[in-house]
Amino acid sequence: MTRRGLIEELLARGGGSSYRDAETVVNAIFEAMGAVLARGQRIEIRGFGSFAVKSRRARRGRNPKTGVAVAVDAKRVPFFRAGKELRAEVNGAGPAAETHPD
């Protein structure tokens, strides 16, 4: 799904919003999430998952085309870890499968 798809989904569920209002909401959420991650903070959305930033150390890599060794600089990369409910939904279990009979 693309950003446009998210906007259209929000419009389909939201009722009276205009496209411009839905676009503003989606863009504001992504901008806020990017700013939080840029500060090195973590985002947790219960039932969905968490976003964090991981530090990667500098290392030696290889150019896959030529095979020449190259230096890869240290960097920070965004990382997503799916929550239990999202994993269950993706695997077809759904929320009802998580209840245990006594």
Per-chain topology:
Blueprint: H1 3-14, H2 19-38, E1 43-45, E2 49-56, E3 59-62, E4 69-72, E5 75-82, H3 84-90
Helix pairs in contact: 1-2
Describe what you observe in this structure.
- This protein is of the alpha+beta class.
- The protein has two domains: 1-41; 42-102, Irregular (HU Protein, Chain A), CATH 4.10.520.
- Helix content is 38%, strand content 26%.
- The chain has helices at 3-14, 19-38, 84-90, and strands at residues 43-45, 49-56, 59-62, 69-72, 75-82.
- A three-stranded antiparallel β-sheet has the order 1-2-5. A two-stranded antiparallel sheet has the order 3-4.
- A hairpin with a 3-residue loop joins strand 1 (43-45) and strand 2.
- The longest helix has 20 residues, at 19-38.
- The chain is elongated and about 55 Å long.
- The termini are far apart.
- The relative contact order is 0.11.
CATH superfamily descriptor of the largest domain? IHF-like DNA-binding proteins
What portion of the residues fall into strands of 2 or more residues? 25-35%
Strand order of the largest sheet: 1-2-5
What percentage of residues falls in helices of 4 or more residues? 25-40%
- How many helices does DSSP assign? 3
Number of strands: 5
Mind telling me the CATH class of the largest domain? Few Secondary Structures
> Which structural class is indicated by helix and strand composition?
alpha+beta
Question: Using only CA atoms, what is the Rg?
Answer: 20 Å
Note the main sheet. Answer: 3 strands, antiparallel
Model regions low in confidence, pLDDT < 50 over at least 5 residues = none
